[in-house]
């Protein structure tokens, strides 16, 4: 089984995404702004805590709103390539699924739990549940490798921005007070 076409395709999609999104000045500016605002908001919340001062609350709410808007803009910048990448990987998954349909692509060092066996042993003949289908291997690799690569290359959101929990569909400012 040769996975080189899959690896080349993944690298080319990643390269295209890097050129179209992560390298752009707009993305870099928004990312820096989100990180700066997240840290500023976190510091302000630590200093003032549950202050009853209305002026402080207004400043915090204003900062939360700015952070939410910048985070939304950042998500919109990435959205086009996310759709293109999703479409390309869905097509690739479909192609590889038809190529490797009914073939054992890996031998698992464990027997999966019963409710996962349908996926791990999908379209494979025999009763050896340590045999692994392509779709299961693809899902495992995607889940385990993707986030680590994003962190390694610096594309994952910063801890401060993640801690604030705002994004395109994040909570409204002051929602959980």
Automatic annotation (TrEMBL):
<keyword id="KW-0106">Calcium</keyword>
<protein>
    <recommendedName>
        <fullName>Calcium load-activated calcium channel</fullName>
    </recommendedName>
</protein>
<comment type="similarity">
    <text>Belongs to the TMCO1 family.</text>
</comment>
<keyword id="KW-1133">Transmembrane helix</keyword>
<comment type="function">
    <text>Calcium-selective channel required to prevent calcium stores from overfilling.</text>
</comment>
<feature type="coiled-coil region">
    <location>
        <begin position="24"/>
        <end position="77"/>
    </location>
</feature>
<dbReference type="GO" id="GO:0005262">
    <property type="term" value="F:calcium channel activity"/>
</dbReference>
<keyword id="KW-0406">Ion transport</keyword>
<keyword id="KW-0472">Membrane</keyword>
<keyword id="KW-0256">Endoplasmic reticulum</keyword>
<feature type="transmembrane region" description="Helical">
    <location>
        <begin position="6"/>
        <end position="22"/>
    </location>
</feature>
<feature type="transmembrane region" description="Helical">
    <location>
        <begin position="81"/>
        <end position="100"/>
    </location>
</feature>
<keyword id="KW-0813">Transport</keyword>
<dbReference type="InterPro" id="IPR002809">
    <property type="entry name" value="EMC3/TMCO1"/>
</dbReference>
<dbReference type="Pfam" id="PF01956">
    <property type="entry name" value="EMC3_TMCO1"/>
</dbReference>
<keyword id="KW-0812">Transmembrane</keyword>
<keyword id="KW-0109">Calcium transport</keyword>
<keyword id="KW-0407">Ion channel</keyword>
<dbReference type="GO" id="GO:0032469">
    <property type="term" value="P:endoplasmic reticulum calcium ion homeostasis"/>
</dbReference>
<keyword id="KW-0107">Calcium channel</keyword>
<dbReference type="GO" id="GO:0005789">
    <property type="term" value="C:endoplasmic reticulum membrane"/>
</dbReference>
<keyword id="KW-0175">Coiled coil</keyword>
<dbReference type="InterPro" id="IPR008559">
    <property type="entry name" value="TMCO1"/>
</dbReference>
């Amino acid at each position: 089984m040769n996975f080189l076409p899959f690896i080349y395709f993944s690298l080319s999609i990643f390269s295209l995404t890097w050129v179209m999104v992560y390298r752009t000045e707009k993305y870099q500016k928004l990312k820096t702004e989100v990180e700066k605002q997240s840290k500023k908001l976190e510091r302000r919340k630590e200093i003032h805590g549950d202050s009853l001062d209305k002026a402080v609350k207004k400043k915090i709410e204003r900062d939360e709103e700015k952070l939410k808007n910048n985070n939304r803009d950042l998500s919109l910048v990435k959205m086009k390539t996310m759709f293109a990448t999703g479409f390309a990987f869905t097509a690739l998954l479909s192609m590889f699924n038809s190529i490797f349909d009914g073939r054992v692509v890996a031998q698992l060092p464990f027997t999966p739990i019963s409710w996962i066996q349908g996926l791990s042993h999908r379209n494979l003949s025999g009763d050896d549940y340590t045999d692994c289908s392509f779709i299961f291997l693809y899902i495992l690799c995607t889940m385990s490798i993707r986030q680590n690569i994003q962190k390694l290359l610096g594309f994952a959101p910063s801890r401060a921005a993640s801690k604030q929990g705002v994004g395109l569909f994040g909570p409204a400012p002051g929602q959980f007070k």
